[in-house]
Design a protein that fits this description.
Blueprint lengths: L11 E3 L6 E3 L5 E2 L3 H7 L1 H26 L13 H56 L1 E9 L5 E10 L4
């Protein structure tokens, strides 16, 4: 921003919300603040904006020429149809990419969850089968008693059966 009176661009004092600005070079006061200064510098701001746009466009053209330098299908980037395509459809293209990316991540996450669910179901089935097998088994405790002349006797101490069939 430049002072409308003296043309200085770095000699300003202002309050916190920039509702009052004063040029310290020529002592001109802008009572409407930054809005008044913007209004007086509108042509300068438009020139700077146009220059920035031109610089960005030429930089983008140079980069695209470098990127597509060896491509035989695209011979001339003078009309910059790629830039026009991105300017007109860029928002839609990025939105579609976002939606596709979201669907891909949903599918991937769903696949991982289903894999974990199958693993947990298999583990639960194994635990149930193991518990059923233990229910069907009987627990027997016994002692072998040695007698005379090599005779041996089996003495059952405890016998547990969970189910009687």
């Amino acid at each position: 921003m430049r002072c409308a009176t003296c043309g200085s661009d770095d000699h300003f004092e202002f309050n916190e919300d920039k509702s009052y600005i004063k040029c310290t070079m020529c002592n001109r006061e802008y009572l409407e603040g930054i809005e008044e200064l913007k209004e007086l510098n509108e042509e300068v701001l438009n020139d700077v904006k146009g220059q920035i746009e031109e610089d960005a466009k030429s930089y983008l053209q140079d980069e695209l020429r470098k990127a597509f330098k060896g491509c035989k299908n695209i011979k001339k980037l003078g009309n910059m149809w790629i830039v026009d395509l991105f300017r007109d459809w860029g928002g839609h293209i990025f939105s579609i990419c976002g939606i596709i990316g979201g669907l891909f991540m949903y599918y991937r996450h769903d696949k991982i969850i289903k894999k974990q669910e199958k693993f947990l179901n298999d583990l639960q089935i194994k635990q149930i089968k193991k518990a059923e097998e233990q229910e069907l088994q009987a627990r027997v405790e016994c002692n072998i008693i040695r007698g005379e002349r090599g005779v041996r006797r089996i003495r059952f101490l405890q016998f547990w059966a969970s189910r009687c069939s």
